[in-house]
Amino acid sequence: MKNILNALAIVWSIGFCALAQVTETKTTVKDSIGKTMQQLEVDSLYKYVELQYFQKNYEIAIEEANITIALAKKIGDIEKIIDLSSIIGNAFLKSQDTIASKKVFSENVARALKNNDPKSIVATQIDLANLYALQGQSKEAVKLYKEAIISAKISADTTALFILHNNISDFSINNNDVVMASYHVPKTVEFAEYLNFKYYSVAAKSLQGRLRYIKGDATNAIRILEESAVEAKDIDFDEILIQIYEYLSKAYVLDGDYRAAYKANSEREIYLNKQYETDKILAIETATAKYKLDQYQLELKEQALQAEIDKQETKRQTQLLWIKIASGILLVFFLFLLFTYVRRRRLLKNLKFKNKQYLDEKEKTEELSKAKSRLFSNLTHELRTPMYGIIGISNMLMENSKFDSEKEQISTLKFSANYLLSLINNALYFNKIDAEKSNQLKNKTFNLRKIVDNIVESIKFLNNQNPNEFLVEIDKSIPKKLMGDDVKLSQVLMNLLSNAAKFTNDGVIIISIKKAETTEVEKVGLDFSIKDNGIGIHLDKQQKIFEDFIQDDFKHNNINGTGLGLPIVKKILKQHNSKLILTSEIGDGTEVKFTIVYKIANTTDLPAKKVKIEKNVLAGKKILIVDDNKINRIVTEREIKNYGAQATLASGGLEAIQLTKKQAFDLILMDINMPGMDGFEATEIIRNHDKTIPILALTAVEREKVLEQNRFSLMNDIVIKPYKGELFIRTILKNLP
After folding, report:
1. DSSP 8-state class, residue 220
2. 1-147 has CATH 1.25.40.10 classification
């Protein structure tokens, strides 16, 4: 069934184009003073032949064309012979006599090549290529189309060039030939724009969308095909809408949006049904024309034998002829209905098969997503574990007076470690929000001005190689305390300000926050704007930079990054029912805007002030530290000793079990991922002989990954490495007996 639909699409494309070519060639009449009477007679008969063809009187067109060709040969009018032969071939083709049509077209190509007229060569080659296309001989058709392009370029025939590139593009896309399609589709677009004909423009744009799909670019394929569908509907271009919705459905499947794919496929069914009605009428007309042509040829043979039959016999034969025609029409109509019924059943069967394919692809996509999530989790854990040691050691060195002369180098080391940790956290957070099914946001009290000031100071430090001036403008009427997800707001501002600082050197960056209109009670809308006067972003890259791992290309500025910042911003703003508006010009800087609505914090929402932790708060407490990483054991030991605790170290689960059997501890800090025996297994064995001792998971694994483990129920709490010192100690204090 797919082949039939493709054939119908080709019939539209090449049939429409061939007539356009024939019309263009044939409307040129040599009306010069030097014409002979014979030439005028040939021109007059040609117009009559052309009229009969367009009125679908194919038998008359063939007969009169042959008579006119004989006259044209006498006066040597080769161009008219070629034009008339084209009409004869197309008349045979319309009457479904492909054998006769191929013979005429082949002879006509040879005649045009011999005459060496580029315009005639193009017309004849298109005729023959169209026939090959209808017969499913794609390679022969494409070969002829390519040969015709050479002649069309010589004759500067832009209409023919559009037709040829369009047809080759259609074949190459149907055959998933990305290389060939990538060359011919832009050419089709170029000539469509030059001709400025709406039908050509829609056809070219649909090819762009289909090319994006076979390249695997679902996002742009969907965007272009949806635009094409709107334009096609505006001009009632139903034939191409079948093709547009077919590929739009495929693109949605590639993008993972199966609901939209089903909707697009339903739209395609609507236009297939409309096409079915049109095809039904066309099939009847074609069958009638073929029958009339067959009868006409039969009559030509019988005329010599029945020349002397009387008028009454002729009248009887005429009546019989009409009875046969009526019977033939009824028979063809019945066969066509039968064919339509069979085709519908095949379509339904094909639809069920496609739906099964969609479900299979969905399952594969979900498996790939889970695999990606596991990979990100494992990588970030392996990276964050040594980072815990690096940051901890650098903190220890900073506090040691012996290294005062090396403070600057140690500070640089600590900064580099923190920066690397932020990149790791960005990758982890990107994976997390990409995999989350819920859009729940945290709701806690925060100070907007404090967040902005802290981020600006951080950006100044991180980008000290670009000494920019930061101007902060916050509407004074905005409440100081708001309720919302301050962490995600910080991530948005940090990423946007970091980008602005990277692409601005010795410039000005303006952070503006104003009140926005909102109808929600006890809430305030905030319009955020970050504007710089840096180098700007190319227009053709302003959409791409929101894609995962994509960066603008500024190699001459030595600007690097992960390509995760803006995708993370986009996802976070989507959770807030907001979106980022970006305006930029090369050399004039960039401005980004977004709006978020927050609840105004009441006095009851404000958190209680935390009491400062005394340095000897853990004095006399015996704590067992279990970690397979030696550096991490040293860092953790130093941290708890600073608060007066006594530390005992174990390099693995077995050693920890033996120590707990020999002596009593007030608390255990248990690493999770350890070789041989992991933290969960060690905890389970310890609980067999000590059910009350507090055991805290001290790990670089994501909190959610630890909490979802059933064996975590044997533990009391969790601390994620790297941690903030006071938070770590407060967690220990909370769990001590």
Report:
1. H
2. yes
Q: How much is the pTM? A: 0.40
Q: How confident is the model at residue 426 (pLDDT cuts 50, 70, 90)?
A: low
Mean pLDDT of 92-120: 87
Non-local (6+) Cβ contacts of 373 within 8 A are 431, 435
Does the structure show a pLDDT above 90 at 328? no
Domain spans in the chain, listed from the N-terminal domain onward: 1-147, 444-605, 622-735
DSSP 344-383: HHHHHHHHHHHHHHHHHHHHHHHHHHHHHHHHHHHHHHHH
For 397-537, strand residue ranges (E) read 444-447, 469-474, 481-484, 508-516, 523-532
CA-based torsion, 246, 250, 255, 256: positive or negative: positive
Taken in order 51, 55, 60, 65, the sign of the CA dihedral is: positive
**Which of 3.30.1370.60, 3.40.50.2300, 1.10.1380.10, 1.20.1740.10 would CATH assign to domain 622-735?**
3.40.50.2300
- Which residue from 530, 540, 528, 527 is spatially nearest to 585, judged by alpha carbons? 540
CA distance 51 to 56: 9
Are residues 449 and 487 in contact, defined by beta-carbon separation less than 8 angstroms? no
The alpha helices in 400-447, defined as continuous H runs, are 407-435
Helices 58-75 and 258-305, packing angle to 10 deg: 70
Name residue 527's beta-bridge partners.
514, 595
**Is the preceding peptide bond at 186 cis, omega within 30 degrees of 0?**
no
Q: How confident is the model at residue 374 (pLDDT cuts 50, 70, 90)?
A: low
Q: Which one-letter DSSP state was computed for residue 257? A: -
Is the sign of the CA dihedral 114, 120, 124, 126 positive or negative?
positive
